From TrEMBL:
It comes from the Eukaryota. Keywords: Heme, Iron, Metal-binding, Monooxygenase, Oxidoreductase. This is Putative P450 monooxygenase. Its cofactor is heme. Belongs to the cytochrome P450 family. Heme binds at C448. It holds the Pfam family p450.
């Protein structure tokens, strides 16, 4: 080496690096060249980064699949799909798909995984099995009562603060209040202690603003997982939320740590809630701490999105609004609704309302991206196409729910009638629509564990809101702000709310 001048060595090394880069880029390009997509996506992740961080990920993704087909290329090793058959296939045991590196981004904690981020399928499915009972509500006898209590807290807050009168308009921000509500519900059913956002009518430790900055960080790391490794450096860890923080997500971590600690030791608290169920099924104190936080992160914004969008979509479509109120009034007059809070079992029997729920999930699936799975180590053949090993396959739920061949040509219209037997679809088509819309909760072994809790919240809260109050969009020219970063960040969704005067004695038929 002594014979070679240093500048020559440097040139040689950089030359080799460039060659290696060109070779691997070309390789990646060629491997997926039979899938069409935005031109730059064959050799760069910039398209994906821009789509992720631009705040319009749902629209960008939809446009790609509309233009390039059900499965399109969006990055050097990444496909994006709206293909129901492919989504189902990825769940099969024989196909051996697993979570891709994208899921590492859900691991905010530098060293510790939790159920949403585990990529080892064996570890993941064991954890799922230990937690299913708690999540399904089977181990939580007071689930419904707990939700009732939160609904009453919610309405008490609206009654005392947000009811407008002829003389006074009080802006009611449903974006913010639905999040408060869902945070109080999840803390109550998960560990028997409400965060108390509704009581305070405030976010005293800045949880919402911090979440709104963390979510974009998560999707950034989803595109560039290698950068996340830097986060393991100790100076970077100082930037992450931690349990000793007095504010934001860290404060919630601290809260979680405390409620978990109460379940251990001499004077331990024993409760039949989700935490109690996980404990009974063998989760350790460490695991419980991270899973508690996961429940809060996974279970609050998603449900809040459905609640606020259902009210918004119904309130902005007069014929729908009238019809759903009619159904509720008739059922109430016939004594078919428990007061003060409708039972889940009663809500199921309201066909038009349930059609509104499906239509809301279709128009506004709360979790949009990317949730990329990874193809098996020896690749896969699907539909006559070869998917090379370790290809990331992201889903596009917004596009999926707007597939014309499944839902009809009017996919952009909010039309609950499409879900009724009389809505113009054959029973077979309806069955396929049903199967597809519930994919909003994911699919099979990758699907949402909290679905029973979420659906119970939805089944009870939305009809009660509609029956108790009139909702009038405060500014139709600018109804709300939205940023889609995988989840939706909704802000400033103002309504004028007034108490509803029930129509006089209807006769039940
Ligand atoms: C309408 C509301 C909700 C929707 C649309 C929804 C949707 C989803 C989706 C799409 C996934 C990911 C599937 C994948 O990785 O491919 C997921 C996972 C998950 N959700 Fe939900 N979710 C909702 C509410 C909730 C609630 C209320 C909870 C908690 C009580 C919850 C807990 C979870 C958990 C723990 C996972 C991870 C499951 C696993 O890793 O195996 N979700 N959800
Ligand atoms: C809110 O006000 C309505 C009508 O005045 C009343 O029926 C309802 O019980 C109140 N709800 C709560 C939780 O205070
Ligand atoms: C677990 O995953 C969620 C994402 O769903 C993340 O927000 C949270 O910080 C993670 N918790 C820990 C302790 O790693
Ligand atoms: C997912 O795959 C498993 C294993 O093949 C199967 O038992 C399960 O029914 C599938 N789930 C769905 C929703 O298709
Ligand atoms: C909520 O209503 C739906 C009907 O669309 C029903 O399938 C579901 O069982 C109900 N409740 C829960 C907790 O899922």
């Amino acid at each position: 080496m002594a014979l070679l001048p240093p500048s020559f060595v440097a040139a040689l090394v950089s030359g080799l690096l460039v060659l290696w880069y060109v070779y691997s880029t070309l390789n990646a390009y060629l491997a997926l060249r039979h899938f069409k997509g935005p031109w730059s996506s064959g050799f760069s992740r910039l398209w994906l980064l821009r789509a992720n961080l631009g705040g319009r990920m749902n629209h960008e993704f939809r446009a790609v699949n509309d233009k390039y087909g059900k499965t399109a290329r969006v990055g050097p090793q990444t496909l994006l799909t709206t293909d129901v058959a492919l989504i189902k296939r990825m769940n099969g045991t024989r196909s051996d798909y697993r979570r891709s590196v994208w899921y590492n981004a859900l691991r905010l904690h530098p060293t510790r995984d939790n159920i949403t981020s585990h990529r080892d399928e064996q570890v993941h499915s064991r954890l799922r099995a230990q937690m299913t009972q708690g999540y399904s509500g089977k181990d939580v006898p007071d689930l419904e009562k707990d939700i009732d209590r939160c609904i009453e807290d919610f309405f008490a807050l609206i009654n005392r603060t947000y009811v407008s009168s002829e003389a006074e308009y009080v802006p009611f921000d449903l974006a913010r209040l639905a999040t408060f509500f869902s945070l109080d519900v999840i803390s109550t059913v998960a560990f028997g202690k409400s965060f108390g956002f509704l009581d305070l009518n405030d976010d005293p430790f800045g949880y919402l603003p911090q979440l709104q900055t963390l979510l974009p960080a998560i999707i950034f790391f989803g595109v560039y997982p290698e950068i996340q490794k830097i986060m393991r450096l100790s100076w970077m860890q100082a930037l992450l939320p931690k349990a000793t923080d007095v504010n934001g997500v860290g404060r919630v971590m601290g809260f979680a740590k405390d409620v978990v600690a109460e379940r251990f030791g001499e004077e331990k608290v024993v409760r039949r809630d989700m935490l109690g169920s996980f404990l009974k099924n063998g989760l350790t104190q460490d695991q419980l701490e991270s899973e508690t936080l996961t429940q809060v992160a996974a279970g609050s914004d998603s449900t809040a999105t459905v609640i606020r969008m259902a009210i918004f979509l119904i309130a902005s479509n007069p014929s729908v609004y009238n019809k759903v109120l009619e159904e509720l009034d008739v059922a109430e007059a016939a004594g078919k609704l428990t007061r003060p809070v409708i039972r889940d079992s009663e809500s199921r029997l309201l066909p038009y309302f349930q059609a509104c729920v499906r239509e809301t999930l279709r128009c506004y699936p709360p979790v949009t991206g990317q949730l990329a799975k990874q193809s098996p180590a020896n690749g896969d053949h699907f539909n006559g196409m070869y998917i090379p090993p370790n290809t990331q396959i992201a889903w596009n739920s917004w596009g999926l729910m707007r597939t014309k061949e499944i839902f009809g040509d009017d996919v952009d219209v909010f039309r609950p009638e499409r879900w009724l037997a009389s809505g113009g679809h054959t029973p077979e088509e309806l069955a396929h629509m049903e199967e597809t819309v519930w994919m909003a909760f994911g699919w099979g072994r990758f699907g949402c564990l909290g679905r029973p809790v979420a659906q119970m919240e939805i089944n009870k809260t939305i009809p009660e809101l509609l029956m108790e109050y009139n909702f009038q969009i405060a500014d139709p020219s600018n109804p709300f702000s939205v940023k889609c970063v995988g989840f939706f960040i909704h802000t400033d969704m103002f309504f004028r709310v007034s108490k509803r005067i029930r129509r006089e004695s209807r006769t039940a038929t």
